[in-house]
């Protein structure tokens, strides 16, 4: 190892001091060391190659790793064994005409480790800045002291600020655990790593050796405390994001139920099955596109949204006209009837599509993720939040700006007065039920991207949907929005402390106690029939 370190230092000095020297001479000297077939010389040659910056170096190291680096002849020369046993010049990769008898360069475990180190060092001097940065991060995670000379040499030539920062961080990560370092150097390394503020930095700082000076240990302890406090804040922010994501799902599932329950007073236990039908509509659309129009796959969700709205809306109108309209004013009967309808719809889907989960793919624009600080945001969840808000404001505009919306609000506030003014309340009921069902179908399109598409999909959201509607205020859209987001965030903030099951139970108890104080929810609708 001493020979390797000396070779690395020598090569680093050579490269750093004479950047204009021809690299062929350095590589030729390294190739000559392979011909001695001694492990120390091979290791030293690998170190020199790693810092040469030559385009041929990577191929030579790779050939040695594969057992294809051979030598022979007088004077001895190094070749790379190609296909069919042909010998290639390692610098030009051209076949050699006068090929002498050869034998492979020997490799042992120590040389294999040197090969891995050389590959990492070659990445540090790669022309691609992204590869250099990744190599620096990998060196920092490994904390291998043998990589220091290569890292110092690469750092001396680096001009990209981001790559240089990654290399400095990798160097500091190694120095923290290296013996023989002065306290001042180690403290500077601790501060640099501590500024990174992530889990990797925590692991590195906890590796400060016991032999370190007391001031170094104190600096590391302060850095660890600061990182843990910072990560706790980011963890809470991540939970809030998860809560908003869950809240958008609850909003999509509950918003149709809010207008149905608010206008008609119907406890629709089949609302979850409307969500399920929307998800299966997405599955059918994608199957047709996969088999007939594969180029349209990225637009499959955009095609499925209006189709799911129309299909589930039509099913909703049929249910209202054939069953619900005979049961107005009898809440228990509507609950039992719609529960029976939900069982019928589930069994129908099982008969048509089978009981197993169905695969619904994600378009390319909903794939991937990105980070803001230490906050990880997936594109799919972000688009679902955007979609939920678009649906909310579109429904709000429908209720505020259209005739059907005006009639729905009139029926909500006072059904008898609206009927006396010439509003066809039966027609409004059918359209309201169809609109609520159609919105549930669009929710199913979104949920198909984050949940299993199965006959039981709707059952996972029906109880939470009723909870959101009652908590926010029956029939009030703004109450549904605030209720969905509040319950979603509260649920995710409780989970780390109470667990998923106990957290949901605690949230249910809190909502029950809240309803005892405010029976009409957060935002109670006011009208003459209510005030009476």
TrEMBL record:
InterPro entries: ABC_transp_permease, ABC_UrtB_bac, BCAA_transport_permease. GO terms for molecular function: transmembrane transporter activity. One of its GO terms (biological process) is amino acid transport. The keyword Signal applies. Residues 1-24 form the signal peptide. CDD domains: TM_PBP1_LivH_like (cd06582). The keyword Lyase does not apply. It holds the Pfam family BPD_transp_2. It is a multi-pass membrane protein. Keywords: Amino-acid transport, Cell membrane, Membrane, Signal, Transmembrane, Transmembrane helix, Transport. One of its GO terms (cellular component) is plasma membrane. It is found in: Cell membrane. The chain crosses the membrane at residues 240-267, 274-293, 299-319, 331-349, 382-406, 427-446, 466-490, 497-515. Belongs to the binding-protein-dependent transport system permease family. LivHM subfamily. This is Branched-chain amino acid ABC transporter permease.
């Amino acid at each position: 190892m001493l020979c390797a370190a000396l070779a690395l230092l020598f090569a680093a000095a050579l490269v750093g001091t004479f950047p204009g020297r021809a690299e062929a001479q350095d590589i030729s000297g390294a190739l000559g060391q392979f011909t001695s077939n001694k492990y120390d010389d091979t290791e030293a040659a690998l170190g020199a190659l790693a810092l040469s910056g030559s385009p041929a170096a990577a191929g030579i190291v790779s050939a040695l790793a594969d057992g294809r680096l051979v030598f022979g002849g007088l004077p001895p020369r190094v070749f790379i064994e190609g296909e069919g046993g042909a010998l290639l010049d390692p610098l030009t990769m051209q076949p050699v005409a006068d090929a002498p008898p050869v034998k492979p360069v020997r490799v042992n475990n120590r040389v294999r480790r040197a090969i891995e180190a050389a590959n990492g060092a070659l990445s540090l001097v790669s022309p691609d800045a992204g590869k250099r940065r990744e190599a620096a991060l990998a060196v920092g995670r490994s904390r291998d002291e043998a990589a220091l000379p290569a890292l110092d040499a690469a750092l001396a030539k680096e001009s990209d600020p981001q790559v240089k920062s990654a290399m400095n961080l990798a160097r500091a990560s190694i120095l923290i655990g290296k013996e023989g370092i002065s306290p001042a150097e180690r403290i500077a390394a601790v501060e640099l790593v501590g500024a990174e503020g992530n889990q990797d930095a925590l692991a590195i700082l906890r590796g400060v050796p016991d032999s370190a000076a007391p001031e170094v240990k104190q600096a590391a302890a302060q850095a660890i405390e600061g990182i843990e406090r910072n990560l706790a804040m980011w963890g809470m922010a991540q939970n809030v994001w998860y809560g908003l994501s869950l809240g958008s799902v609850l909003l999509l599932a509950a918003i149709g139920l809010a207008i149905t329950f608010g206008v008609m007073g119907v406890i629709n236990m089949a609302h979850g099955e409307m969500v399920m039908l929307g998800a299966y509509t997405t599955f059918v659309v994608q199957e047709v596109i996969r088999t007939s129009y594969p180029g349209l796959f990225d637009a499959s969700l955009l095609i499925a949204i209006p189709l799911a709205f129309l299909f589930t809306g039509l099913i909703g109108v049929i249910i209202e006209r054939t069953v619900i309209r005979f049961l107005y004013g009898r809440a228990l009967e509507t609950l039992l009837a719609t529960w029976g309808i939900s069982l019928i719809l589930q069994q129908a889907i099982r008969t048509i599509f089978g009981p197993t989960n169905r695969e619904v793919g994600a378009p390319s624009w909903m794939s991937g993720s990105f980070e803001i600080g230490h906050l990880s945001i997936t594109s799919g969840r972000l688009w679902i939040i955007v979609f939920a808000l678009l649906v909310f404001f579109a429904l709000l505009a429908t209720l505020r700006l259209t005739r059907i919306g005006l009639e729905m609000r009139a029926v909500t506030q006072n059904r008898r007065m609206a009927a006396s003014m010439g509003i066809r309340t039966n027609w409004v009921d059918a359209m309201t039920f169809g609109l609520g069902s159609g919105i549930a179908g669009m929710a199913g399109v979104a949920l198909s991207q984050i949940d299993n598409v199965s006959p039981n999909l709707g059952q996972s959201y029906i109880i939470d949907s009723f909870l959101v509607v009652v908590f926010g205020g029956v029939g009030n859209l703004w109450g549904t929005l605030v209720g969905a987001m509040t319950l979603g965030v509260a649920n995710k903030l409780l989970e780390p402390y109470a667990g998923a099951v106990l957290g949901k139970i605690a949230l249910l108890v809190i909502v029950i106690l809240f309803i005892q104080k405010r029976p009409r929810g957060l935002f109670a609708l006011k009208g003459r029939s209510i005030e009476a």
